[in-house]
């Protein structure tokens, strides 16, 4: 059974690119276009890993992370992928942080390390 990656990003070009990148590497994906919808997607899909943008409409990534990390038994690794250059808004417990634009090969390697 393949591992599932949840992509949380409001940019359709990024979500499409990440979906293709992850499925080409043998992973299943699910997508949420903002932090508000991400809670429902997370609860429905139970992903093995989350890629998270920080700056989105409706609800920012850090607020989503605070909510989801309070879920009982939450231990899903989170990789931040953001265009924000400041770490001021970053997720303190992130497994990795990638700036946009990011190196796709390094991202896939990090995902593989975290899910193996």
Radius of gyration: 13 Å
Mean pLDDT: 91
Low-confidence residue ranges: none
Largest sheet: 5 strands, parallel
Strand content: 15-25%
Structure, described:
With 116 residues, this protein is of the alpha/beta class. 39% of the residues lie in helices and 20% in strands. It contains 4 helices and 5 strands; from the N terminus they run βαβαβαββα. The protein has a 5-stranded parallel beta sheet with strand order 2-1-3-4-5, with helices on both faces. α3 links the parallel β3 (49-52) and β4 (78-82). α2 (35-45) packs parallel to α3 (61-69). The longest helix has 13 residues, at 12-24. The radius of gyration is 13 Å and the shape is globular. The model has no long low-confidence stretch (mean pLDDT 91).
Please sum up the structure shown:
This protein is α/β, with parallel strands linked by helices and 116 residues long. 39% of the residues lie in helices and 20% in strands. Strand 3 (49-52), helix 3 (61-69) and strand 4 (78-82) form a beta-alpha-beta unit.
Task: Break the fold down into its secondary structure elements and pairings.
Layout (H helix, E strand, L loop, with lengths): L3 E5 L3 H13 L3 E5 L2 H11 L3 E4 L8 H9 L8 E5 L13 E4 L4 H12 L1
Helix pairs in contact: 2-3
Which terms summarize this structure?
116 residues, alpha/beta, 5-stranded parallel sheet, 4 helices, 5 strands, 20% strand
């Amino acid at each position: 059974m393949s591992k599932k990656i949840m992509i949380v990003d409001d940019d359709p070009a990024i979500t499409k690119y990440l979906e293709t990148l992850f499925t080409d590497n043998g992973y299943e994906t699910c997508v949420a276009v903002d932090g508000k919808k991400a809670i429902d997607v997370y609860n429905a899909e139970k992903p093995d890993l989350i890629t998270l943008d920080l700056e989105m409409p409706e609800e920012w990534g850090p607020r989503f992370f605070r909510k989801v990390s309070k879920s009982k038994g939450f231990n899903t690794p989170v990789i931040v992928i953001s265009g924000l250059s400041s770490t001021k808004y970053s997720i303190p417990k992130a497994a990795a942080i990638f700036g946009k634009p990011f190196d796709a090969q390094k991202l896939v390697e990090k995902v593989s390390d975290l899910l193996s």
